[in-house]
Amino acid sequence: MEILMSVWQFFQDNILTRPQFFIGFIVFIGYLLLRRPVYDAIAGFIKAVVGYMILNVAAGGLVGNFRPVLAGLKDRFNLSAAVIDPYFGQTAAQAAIEHIGRSFSMMMIVLLIAFFINILLVLFRRYTKVRTLFITGHVMVQQSSTALWMVIFCFPQLQNLGVVCMLGVLLGTYWAVASNLTVEPCQKLTDGGGFAIGHQQMAGIWITSKIAKKLGNKENSLDNLKLPGFLSIFNENVVATGILMFIFFGIIISILGPDLMHHIDKGFSPKQNFLFYILEKSLNFAVYLTILQLGVRMFVSELTNSFQGISNKILPGSMPAVDCAATYGFGHPNAVTFGFLFGAFGQFLAIIGLILFHSPILIISGFVPLFFDNATFAVFANRLGGIRAAAIIPFFSGIIQVLGGGFAAYYFATGQFGGWHGNFDWDSLCPIIGVIMHNIQYIGVFIVVILLLLIPQIIYYKNKDTYFLIAEDYDKYKEVIAKKQGKSVDDVIIE
Amino acid sequence: MLKVIAACGSGMGSSQLIKMKLEKVFKKLNIESSIYHTNVGDAKSQAQNYDVVVCSESLVSVFANVGKNVKVIGLKNLLSEKEITEKVEAALK
What we know:
heterodimer; A: mainly alpha; B: alpha/beta; Rossmann fold; globular
């Protein structure tokens, strides 16, 4: 017994509470189970461990870079602040979890359980009506991190085993049900492209597909619009992040003033010019985000690879739910820029609103929600409701992102660590689930899971005859619709 | 050995999808390849050292100035092996 206990203790001290090794061994064992050669498994182990450690360096850098600014805001205005971006959100969640002494390794177990639940829901699709498997690895890591903090926040007494099991079921259900909502909009946009969206704004895509037609006319689309050339610089992640951070932190740090910054930030040397200090500080965020993404890419690519393999095995009849950028090829390049632009208008307006109404939290726009959510909405909206819908929907999405993200960062206290997840679903649907969870505890979780599971059932009962056909055989689906409309297959109107 | 870059906005999701599909297609076409996936900014600066760049159609304009020796393939459906096969065959002819 004593030996067993000491083995467990060793395991706990060296692996379980060290996420890098925990993830490394999961990849290692996964490869062996997939019957890949041992040298592949060792390479996978090293890449996963190094990837995670890179991520840790970057997370530390992000938090450290932010700390003096947060301290300044607290000191001068009694404000907290959050960048609404999934990478900042993930970092803030990790910091919050480790701050109260819990292990961040649970994130990986949550991810695996949730993925497994999603597989089960697809395998039993005759009963569950779920047609999609979520395989976007980096998004799964980000959402598992944020959701893990939300559950620990709502159930501080719950032991680790309970946390990972309950959250695994909840998150897996969300992945399955939300991505399932995008099957119809995606097939219509891509003319049977054979994929759905598994990202961070599935509820938003579904809403867009329902309201875009009513907001405008698709004949008046933005394909003919000429957008100014300088906007193309926002295509590059580092440039866009650098510009955004320079605008926001430039304003914030200028207001705090050089004297206070000298006092708070020992890294601000007396000889350094204030403007260049601001420039360095802002661009540091781009530095750490680039490093963070390098780390995530390293340990996630192994994960996504095997998820894709599993997804191929349980086809046909189910669809992979992938990154939202997969839709961009089906929209005019203008749509992507246009969505970003109007999302930014909405966000900036809402941020000004937060300041005017003395919100206790300040929101800083992050690149990922601003660009990827709103560009995706614009692609769908332009197709269904033309230029007007492609302006209105991202604009309101921007407002929701700031207000919902601000509420969530305040309510779930990640504002103290400078970030919130920030993508559309995580500024709307998920904080609502969190509030339910916080207030009515286990019963709330139970109700949420049941309500989520009801959604695919309702959609199924509305279109029983074509519900599975659209995912299995799009050509046949078109024939059925053509027959219903009394038209030939070439003239069929898919609404 | 064909050197290929798969690129997308942040170098995370779609570029990895492209990479996985490309690996399958190249295997079928019996083309030996090494594929690197990354974001467009990185891809743009490194494109010179590669034979082929593959990305979403919406990003093709980014690679307008990479030079004639680099083939740029823009995809509509990143997950369609049929489209990828056709475009790869046309580009390598």
